[in-house]
Design brief:
heterodimer, A: Alpha-Beta Plaits, Alpha-Beta Plaits, 4 domains, 7-stranded antiparallel beta sheet, 16 helices, 17 strands, B: alpha+beta, 2 domains, 5-stranded antiparallel beta sheet, 4-stranded antiparallel beta sheet, about 25% helix, about 25% strand
């Protein structure tokens, strides 16, 4: 347990660094039994608990409140079992995402969800947020690759949900736990599906004269029956910034797509042939194919440097709304108009195949009022995503960052149904209680507890 | 378990008018349904396409037909998205998708012949049963394709969750909770689904002469290759089947690679998969039918210990179908092998063997708590 004020500084925020608050204390258990003991004690004392994986949440999922204990699972990071015949791995939940794949790489397998923070982020947080990544179009997100968990409820009860098999006749409790942002229980162990690695992968880069052309091309590629593993989209502001930062030699154009396919050399050639055939109908201004590993790496270079390049330009807020792929051009137009209205630049880089946008709002943290203006612009963009038939968050989660926007997407009955689930798992509303739901909406339930 | 299917054995008859005497109301829309649930004075039986088989003569339970909640709300092939009302017949959904060269990823089975029931499968039934066929191994089950739901809970509230986009982590995932909930929490009124392009070609590698142990090992090896095997099944005494799908050249390449590993014969086209999906081998045969979910490498032990009259292994061994003598207490025979065993067809449902496996006390408490929270009056308990 950690309770010295200087040592607690580490835990006062996650990757949403704009919000900070030191917790009461932090505990770092080493086993499911220790997690159960800690939760039981906090439950008895009526102390709120904020679970924490690696603290990489961009939404404030692990941001403490002053009255809460941080329960970090980072010390629980062992591999418990590898079973390639049955295609699963069982790990302690503090293990990092990338090190799960690393544990099965020698056998030719990998764990599919690949959030950008995969070097640092923990499986516990991936499960809490139902994390995605760049390859979801083909392989799905965390919930599609999670077979079972060991979880501790707020009162200290240990439950096993799912296991190394698929489906069953009971209610899909595992499905509702995944993505519940640490509000239903603390996951201590996870059984994860692993997949055989493909024979190879190769990208192609295609530049377009307009966002509309690039957006229409995405829809046509999907309609053609090809299922690429990734379709990444960058708009002009993003291309320009990446070019000056990473010098990847990207074409000078309004929008570009990087499309990657997998398979044997012949399979790749066939799929890329089809994709280029589709792309040519949209008058591409540039096409760059890859003939080697080195050329592939150069195609990805600018995209992978995008966030770093943005960081060079100043401070930014990274949004995460998802929209129907068909609404891409329209929503990009709307974002451009909002950007002009608020007087802040917005660059777009995102997973186009599944409509998961990542508009980056550039601002200056040292200029008074800029952060507030950027947050207001962010809220306006997310409203536009919902209006276009999309949602507030595709893979980052609600946390504290977007909780007040929940009423934009959900009616009161929708939120009530979700909160009733929490009532069942955590009747006292002690587990990460200030997240996900607008504070005013969850207040009666949280106060009921405080009064008890 | 709900049964599903696309070709009614007797399409001219409506099960609700002829066989079930307790139809009280047919709801026209979601609002109508919500009012009916709010006004219910006792348990309600919810009927979609009538494949569930229930509804005995003199049954006191009132029946609500939601077959009227039908039709495609939105279909965007370029976004791989379909939104459809729950009462829409599965056949209609599949025809609409086929018209655009697409399909449901999870290959929903037709269990009507297996279970000896009539009626028309609806997409709501498919969702509520979390249906999945052989393609479960690569494409997942209905839950994995479901992007959003609308439902009416036991208080008569209309609730929406999820949406129509591929990635969505906004709030709790009640879509998964409703998938496979079998009507225990509410009535699904609308489903948004991720669909996929239908492949240009498919082929099956047939291996002969393997016992369950060697068949499961071969299937595990095949599913561990990069050749995207989209079906791996074993029917004892008949054969072991490995399916690949994709572009024609791709299928030719992959079957050649698999054949180099395992030998066997290549059959192009649809192959035996509809029969495996529907467990056709047990249809019309006497006995109880069990569905056992295990880790694939446990499947040979399941077959050995079950002493069954028939077995079909799907999902590389992860799903074992067994035909047992009436009243066999399969769970005690399989004691020590982890994974749920469900009896989906009972010769005598009153023989004291529960259809559903027991749940651990903590899980049972959560399940009961959720049922009480979504259906406090027990409207859907019938």
């Amino acid at each position: 347990m950690i309770d010295a004020p200087e040592a607690l500084k580490v835990y006062e925020c996650d990757a949403l660094t704009a919000r900070r608050c030191p917790p009461l204390a932090a505990v770092l258990p080493r086993s499911t039994a220790e997690v159960a003991a800690a939760l039981k004690l906090c439950h008895a004392e009526g102390v709120p608990v904020v679970p924490r994986g690696s603290g990489t949440s961009l939404a404030g999922g692990a941001t403490p409140t002053g009255d809460a204990v941080i329960l970090g699972v980072a010390r629980m990071n062992r591999v418990l079992e590898v079973n390639t015949a049955d295609r699963y791995i069982r790990v302690e939940a503090g293990r990092t995402n990338l090190s799960v794949s690393a544990a099965v790489e020698a056998e030719g397998f990998f764990y599919a969800p690949d959030p950008s923070s995969q070097l640092a982020c923990a499986i516990a947080g991936n499960i809490a947020m139902n994390s995605g990544g760049a390859h979801c179009l083909k392989y799905g997100v965390t919930t599609n690759n999670l077979l079972g968990v060991t979880m501790v409820l707020m009162d200290g009860t240990i439950v096993e949900l799912g296991g190394p098999w698929s489906d069953g006749p009971g209610l899909d409790l595992l499905g509702v736990v995944c993505g519940s942002e640490g509000q239903l229980g603390v996951v201590t162990e996870a059984t994860l599906r692993i997949l055989p690695k493909s024979e190879g992968a190769r990208p192609v880069l295609i530049g377009f004269a307009s966002n509309e052309a690039a957006g229409a091309c995405v829809a046509d590629i999907i309609r053609a029956g090809v299922l690429p593993v990734a379709i990444e989209f960058m708009d002009r502001p993003c291309i320009t910034a990446c070019e000056s930062f990473a010098k990847a030699g990207y074409p000078d154009c309004e929008a570009l797509l990087i499309v990657e396919v997998e398979g044997s050399a012949a399979e790749i050639a066939q799929q890329l042939g089809l994709i280029l055939q589709v792309a040519r109908r949209h008058d591409p201004v540039a096409v760059r194919e890859s003939g080697s590993e080195d050329e592939s790496a150069r195609i990805w270079k600018g995209r992978k440097a995008a966030f770093g390049a943005m960081g060079q330009l100043g401070d930014y807020i990274c949004l995460d709304g998802t929209i129907p792929v068909s609404a891409l051009p329209q929503v990009l137009g709307r974002i451009g108009a909002l950007s002009r209205d608020y007087g802040l630049d917005v660059a777009n880089v995102f997973h186009a195949g599944d409509g998961n946008m990542h508009p980056l709002i550039l601002y200056d943290a040292n200029r008074p009022g800029d952060l507030e203006r950027a947050e207001a612009l962010g809220a306006a963009i997310l409203r536009a995503c919902v209006e276009a038939g999309g949602c507030l968050t595709g893979e980052h989660g609600v946390g504290i960052e977007k909780r007040d926007l929940m009423t934009v997407q959900f009616a009161p009955e929708d939120l009530e149904a979700q909160m009733r689930v929490k009532d069942v798992f955590d009747p006292a509303w002690l587990l990460n209680p200030a997240k996900v739901f607008p504070l005013a909406v969850s207040a009666p339930r949280r106060k009921r507890q405080a009064a008890a | 378990m709900n049964a599903r299917g696309r070709q009614p054995r007797d399409p001219g008859r409506s099960v609700w008018n002829d066989e079930v005497q307790d139809v009280r109301a047919e709801v026209r829309d979601e609002q109508d349904l919500a009012e009916a649930v709010r006004g219910a004075r006792g348990p309600l039986r919810i009927a979609g396409g009538g494949t569930r088989g229930g509804g005995r003569a003199g049954d006191p339970v009132a029946c609500l037909s939601v077959a009227g909640l039908s039709g495609v709300v939105l279909y965007e092939p370029g976004a791989l998205t379909l939104v459809v009302r729950a009462g829409t017949p599965l056949a209609e959904v599949e025809a609409a998708l086929a018209g655009q060269g697409q399909r449901l990823p999870f290959e929903p089975p037709d269990f009507r012949a297996l279970l000896g029931v009539w009626g028309v499968s609806t997409i709501g039934g498919v969702a509520a049963a979390n249906a999945a066929g052989p393609r479960r191994v690569t494409a997942g089950a209905a839950r994995d394709a479901m992007l959003g739901v609308r439902f009416v809970d036991g208080t008569g509230a209309i609730v929406k969750n999820g949406g129509r986009v591929m990635k969505n982590v906004t709030g709790y995932d009640l879509v998964k909770l409703m998938a496979g909930s079998r009507g225990r929490l509410g009535v699904i009124t609308e489903v948004a689904l991720k669909v996929l392009p239908a492949p240009e070609a498919q082929a099956t590698l047939v291996l002969s002469g393997l016992d369950a142990g060697r068949a499961v090992a071969a299937m595990a090896r095949a599913l561990g290759t990069p050749y995207e095997v989209s079906g791996a099944a074993h029917v004892p005494g008949e054969g072991t089947y490995l399916r690949v799908e994709g572009f024609a050249e791709q299928v030719a390449y992959r079957t050649a690679r698999l054949r180099a590993l395992f030998g066997g014969e290549v059959v192009s086209g649809a192959g035996p998969w509809a029969a495996i999906r529907d467990v056709a081998a047990f249809a019309g045969r006497a006995g109880d039918v069990w569905r056992v979910h295990v880790k694939p490498s446990d499947a040979p032990a399941v077959v050995a210990r079950a002493g069954a009259d028939g077995a079909v292994l799907d999902w590389g061994g992860g799903l074992v179908w067994l035909l047992t003598a009436p009243g066999t207490d399969l769970r005690s025979r399989l004691a020590g092998i982890p994974g749920p065993a469900e009896r989906v067809r009972a010769t005598d449902p009153g023989d004291g063997i529960p259809a559903l496996p027991p749940e651990a006390p903590a899980v049972a408490r959560l399940t009961a708590g959720l049922r009480a929270a979504f259906d406090p009056r027990g409207v859907f308990a019938g």
